[in-house]
């Protein structure tokens, strides 16, 4: 009977090395794409963004219009807000109100809620 298997073994070292090289290249390209996507997801919120404007977000709490936002106090900032997802001392961090973007720790918006 005739065999349908190739005369040469399917996983020779030559084929395996090519596949391994392709895997390593694809892995490095995929990792780079993920890192680039992560870096892009960490962009800062612009004060002109629709969501930021609607919430009165300012990157510097000292620049908040006190007449428009009478409940604002100078000691309030994103860094001590319950919604701020950054670590203590971080200059910026994530906020669930601005999905995929970071807010300045020194910033403020009308959704401020004291941490703790």
What is the topology?
Blueprint: H1 13-41, E1 43-44, H2 50-54, E2 92-94, E3 101-104
Parallel strand pairs: 1-3
Antiparallel strand pairs: 2-3
Cα end-to-end separation: 79 Å
Shape assignment: elongated
Low-confidence parts: none
Write down the secondary-structure element order.
HEHEE
User: Helix- and strand-based class?
Assistant: alpha+beta
What is the CATH architecture descriptor of the largest domain?
Answer: Irregular
CATH uppermost class of the largest domain = Few Secondary Structures
CATH topology of the largest domain: High-Potential Iron-Sulfur Protein, Chain A
Helix content: 25-40%
> How many domain regions?
2
Instruction: Let me know the number of strands.
Output: 3
Strand order of the largest sheet: 1-3-2
Radius of gyration: 26 Å
Proportion in β-strands: 5-15%
Structure description:
This protein is an alpha+beta fold and 116 residues long. It folds into 2 domains: 32 residues; 74 residues, High-Potential Iron-Sulfur Protein, Chain A (Irregular), CATH 4.10.490. The chain contains 2 helices and 3 strands, in the order H-E-H-E-E. A 3-stranded mixed β-sheet has the order 1-3-2. It is elongated. The termini are far apart. The relative contact order is 0.15. The model has no long low-confidence stretch (mean pLDDT 82).
């Amino acid at each position: 009977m005739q065999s349908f298997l190739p005369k040469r073994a399917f996983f020779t070292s030559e084929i395996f090395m090519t596949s391994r090289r392709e895997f390593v290249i694809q892995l490095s390209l995929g990792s780079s794409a993920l890192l680039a996507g992560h870096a892009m997801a960490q962009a800062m919120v612009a004060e002109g963004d629709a969501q930021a404007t609607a919430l009165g977000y300012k990157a510097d709490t000292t620049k908040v219009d006190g007449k428009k936002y009478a409940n604002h106090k100078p000691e309030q900032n994103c860094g001590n807000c319950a919604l701020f997802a950054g670590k203590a001392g971080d200059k910026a961090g994530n906020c669930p109100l601005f999905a995929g973007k970071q807010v300045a720790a020194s910033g403020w918006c009308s959704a401020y809620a004291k941490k703790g």
